[in-house]
């Protein structure tokens, strides 16, 4: 029965029978104490939320807060925190079947038949209440029969998992219950092939804490995670490098999912311009270290995780020392220099790496060094250098501050990073590949931890490596492309690397030099540049006829511009050829051609404006030197600083 | 894959072309009229009569499709600049022979500039 796949994580380790943690005296819990008459019959009615005779007084989310009339026993069978929808229906069907079987079995155990009862799906499980023929509370054999019936039912469907039985005795006869339980366990042990240690009342025998079953239940009930996956998450240590647009959502979901330890690295402080996308920070925490701000949030989200702050940027000399304490690295940084450094350190420390990036409306995601390279061999997944052996020219590297970023786009990428991280962790980290800082010989590694399952999420070295592309305005928006494998001559992960632990740790590698530093634009002569305050003075009160050309993109020009300026984006200027065709595509150029007034170019920071001056001269707008063309030094940022404090800097 | 060349008469010679789809992503579309997808008819042979390969395609795109003058943001040293992934039918071109891959009718070539923001 297909629908029963959902109950996969329920059933058969039925040795695990449990009393509720606390059985409270009736008088403390039940509003109807003493008023319910023995002999009241509960009709089978799954439509009503609860039988009228059961009136909870206490918090209904407490499994024990169900009041049972003195003559009855309720068996609360909990799977996980809650069941509803399809799951509830399935469990309901299961319980009906179990009840039917129990009724039959009872007879043979010498007790009265279950005459009637009801099964309810309640907020924290399934409640099955019944009375026996003699109108007594349920006894040992009733409970035992119920457990046996459920076990057989589930075994019949080939399911595996666990079920908790909370038994609430109307008389609150704890001593009796213990005796009943002990006997019931014996029954269940006969039924169940598993041989788990026998829990005794009040002693917690489970691998996770009670609260964790509730907290993580929604992900644990999926076959991809399961109890084993949750335990692996709890054991895992993850390092997030960069607590910005990617790092914030990634950290939130990994903390929520219950990783054991979460390290955060960032030396920056929170700025107002971060808040549209960096969701762990908040207006009140502007100026605070991002790492501290994030941990404040994460502790509220999940106090069970250990958070480790690293309050400065990653450096080559310290990277390996930090990475050695983590099972998995997330590259949430924003520059090629850090991306190469993180990848190199991940390879050299034997740590898988989830790497993503985003700009404007697009994002990219890769899982690298997975499984980790074993130094000196060709085993393992490609690293960042395998995919990008040479850094991009500095001029092509745009930051979010320069190019812009849509908050949910980078958010999606951060969330996807968390997803990939969970997949890698749950598939089983091969910690034997972890390279110890003391130089443990990787050839001495022990056998990898055997995987619990062979589900296909588990990456292997034979599996294809892919790059996921997300483009919010693309069609289709998501696209996965096949990547190359490990590069035979990779500088760091080939069998004869030039980048080693020693060269990294000694600080001899300069990633800023490797990636190049964009040259500050300085192409104009002194005469071709004018300070903003001089410009303001020169043109105030229309003292001088002039044309002010704002060369920013139209979107930026539309946000704010100096009154009277015209917009000719630098990109449009770059395409201009100087002939009449330009005028039709850009009316601004036509206006320039038609005027003899001096031309001033302005941009955001004073770089593009210099290039614009050069370009305009090349195109002949300077009328062979007879017309002045110059730029405003320092751009609109300087304009705000020296001329107009009310300029809305964005 | 079948190759069904299209024939276009020109003044002194007939040029055979194949239709291919070229896409730009990661900001490269800004260099190509801010348009992500282009359907182009690529000559089947280069000037030397060699079958059109990716190297020829890159050169062709530079000459015929790229309006932006900043060629260095697309090509460097005769091939695509570092930081651009070339994907032929959704697979890394390094799996297909890189520049020497000979284009087929209906191929999709995607140029992706790697992003660094975060």
From TrEMBL, chain A:
Cofactor-binding details, from the entry: Binds 1 zinc ion per subunit.
Residues involved in ATP binding: 245, 266, 273-277, 290, 334-335
Keyword annotations of the record: ATP-binding, Cytoplasm, Metal-binding, Molybdenum cofactor biosynthesis, Multifunctional enzyme, Nucleotide-binding, Nucleotidyltransferase, Signal, Transferase, tRNA processing, Ubl conjugation pathway, Zinc
Obligatory cofactor(s): Zn(2+)
Protein localization: Cytoplasm, Cytosol
Polar residues composition-biased segments: 451-460
Class of the enzyme per the UniProt entry, highest EC level: transferase
Record protein name field: Adenylyltransferase and sulfurtransferase uba4
Gene designation per UniProt: uba4
From TrEMBL, chain B:
Modifications after synthesis and translation: C-terminal thiocarboxylation occurs in 2 steps, it is first acyl-adenylated (-COAMP) via the hesA/moeB/thiF part of UBA4, then thiocarboxylated (-COSH) via the rhodanese domain of UBA4.
Signal peptide (from-to): none
InterPro entries the UniProt entry points to: Beta-grasp_dom_sf (IPR012675), Mopterin_synth/thiamin_S_b (IPR016155), Urm1 (IPR015221)
Protein's job: Acts as a sulfur carrier required for 2-thiolation of mcm(5)S(2)U at tRNA wobble positions of cytosolic tRNA(Lys), tRNA(Glu) and tRNA(Gln). Serves as sulfur donor in tRNA 2-thiolation reaction by being thiocarboxylated (-COSH) at its C-terminus by the MOCS3 homolog UBA4. The sulfur is then transferred to tRNA to form 2-thiolation of mcm(5)S(2)U. Prior mcm(5) tRNA modification by the elongator complex is required for 2-thiolation. Also acts as a ubiquitin-like protein (UBL) that is covalently conjugated via an isopeptide bond to lysine residues of target proteins such as AHP1.
GO cellular component, one term: cytosol
Native species: Lasallia pustulata
Originating gene: URM1
Alphabetical list of Gene3D superfamilies matching this protein: 3.10.20.30
Family under the similarity heading: Belongs to the URM1 family.
Cell compartments where the protein resides: Cytoplasm
Protein's name according to its UniProt entry: Ubiquitin-related modifier 1
Alphabetized SUPFAM superfamilies for the sequence: MoaD/ThiS (SSF54285)
């Amino acid at each position: 029965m297909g629908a029963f796949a959902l109950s996969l994580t329920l059933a058969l380790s039925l040795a695990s029978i449990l009393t509720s943690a606390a059985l409270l005296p009736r008088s403390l819990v039940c509003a109807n104490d003493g008023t319910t008459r023995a002999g009241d019959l509960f009709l089978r009615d799954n439509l009503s939320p609860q039988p009228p005779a059961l009136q909870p007084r206490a918090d209904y989310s407490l499994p024990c807060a169900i009041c049972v009339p003195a003559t009855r026993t309720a068996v609360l069978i909990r799977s996980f925190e809650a069941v509803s929808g399809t799951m509830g229906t399935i469990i309901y069907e299961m319980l009906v079947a179990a009840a039917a079987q129990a009724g039959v079995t009872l007879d043979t155990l010498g007790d009265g038949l279950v005459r009637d009862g009801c099964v309810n799906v309640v907020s924290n499980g399934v409640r099955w209440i019944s009375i026996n023929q003699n109108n007594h509370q349920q006894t040992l054999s009733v409970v035992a029969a119920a457990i046996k019936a459920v076990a057989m039912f589930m075994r019949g469907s080939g399911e595996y998992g666990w079920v908790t039985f909370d038994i609430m005795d109307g008389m609150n006869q704890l001593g009796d219950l213990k005796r009943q339980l002990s006997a019931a366990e014996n029954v269940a042990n006969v039924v169940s092939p598993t041989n788990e240690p026998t829990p005794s009342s009040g002693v917690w025998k489970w691998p996770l804490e009670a609260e964790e079953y509730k907290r993580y239940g929604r992900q644990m009930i999926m076959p991809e995670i399961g109890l084993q996956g949750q335990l692996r998450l709890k054991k895992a240590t993850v390092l997030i490098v960069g607590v910005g647009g990617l790092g914030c959502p990634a950290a939130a979901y990994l903390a929520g999912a219950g990783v054991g330890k979460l390290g955060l690295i960032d030396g920056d402080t929170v700025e107002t311009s971060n808040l549209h996308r960096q969701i762990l920070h908040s207006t009140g925490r502007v100026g605070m270290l991002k790492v501290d701000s994030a941990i404040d949030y994460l502790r509220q989200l999940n106090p069970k995780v250990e958070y480790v702050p690293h309050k400065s940027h990653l450096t080559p000399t310290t990277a390996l020392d930090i990475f050695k304490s983590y099972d998995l690295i997330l590259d949430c940084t924003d520059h090629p220099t850090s991306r190469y450094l993180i990848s190199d350190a991940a390879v050299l420390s034997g740590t898988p790496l989830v790497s993503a990036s985003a700009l404007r409306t697009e994002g990219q995601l890769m899982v690298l060094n997975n499984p980790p390279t074993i130094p000196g061999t060709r085993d393992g997944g490609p690293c960042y250098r395998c995919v990008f052996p040479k850094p991009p020219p500095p001029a092509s590297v745009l930051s979010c501050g320069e190019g812009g970023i849509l908050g949910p786009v980078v958010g999606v990428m951060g969330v996807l990073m968390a997803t990939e991280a969970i997949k890698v962790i749950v598939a089983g980290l091969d910690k034997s590949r972890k390279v110890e800082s003391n130089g443990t010989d990787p050839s001495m590694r022990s056998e990898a931890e055997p995987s619990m399952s062979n589900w296909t999420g588990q990456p292997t070295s034979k599996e294809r490596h892919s790059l996921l592309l997300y483009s919010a305005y693309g069609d289709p928006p998501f696209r996965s492309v096949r990547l190359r494998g490990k590069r035979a001559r990779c500088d760091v992960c080939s069998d004869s690397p030039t980048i080693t632990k020693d060269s990294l740790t000694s600080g001899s590698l300069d990633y800023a030099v490797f990636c190049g530093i964009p040259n500050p634009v300085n192409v104009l002569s002194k005469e071709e540049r004018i300070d903003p305050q001089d410009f303001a003075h020169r043109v105030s009160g229309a003292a001088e006829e002039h044309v002010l050309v704002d060369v920013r993109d139209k979107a930026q020009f539309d946000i704010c511009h100096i009154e009277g300026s015209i917009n000719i984006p630098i990109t449009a200027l770059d395409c201009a050829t100087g002939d009449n065709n330009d005028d039709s595509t850009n009316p601004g150029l036509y206006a320039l051609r038609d005027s003899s007034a001096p031309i001033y170019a302005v941009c955001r920071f004073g770089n593009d404006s210099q290039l614009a001056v050069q370009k305009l001269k090349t195109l002949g707008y300077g009328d062979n030197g007879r017309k002045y063309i110059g730029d405003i030094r320092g751009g609109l940022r300087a304009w705000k600083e020296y001329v107009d404090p009310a300029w809305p800097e964005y | 894959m079948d190759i069904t060349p299209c024939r276009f008469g020109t003044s002194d010679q007939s040029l055979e072309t194949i239709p291919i789809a070229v896409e730009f992503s990661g900001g490269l579309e800004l260099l190509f009229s801010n348009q992500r997808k282009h359907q182009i008819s690529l000559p089947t042979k280069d000037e030397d009569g060699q079958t059109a390969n990716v190297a020829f395609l890159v050169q062709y795109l530079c000459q015929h499709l790229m309006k932006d003058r900043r060629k260095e943001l697309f090509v460097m040293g005769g091939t695509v600049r570092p930081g651009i992934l070339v994907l032929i039918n959704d697979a890394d071109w390094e799996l297909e022979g890189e520049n020497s891959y000979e284009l087929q009718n209906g191929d999709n070539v995607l140029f992706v500039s790697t992003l660094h923001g975060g």
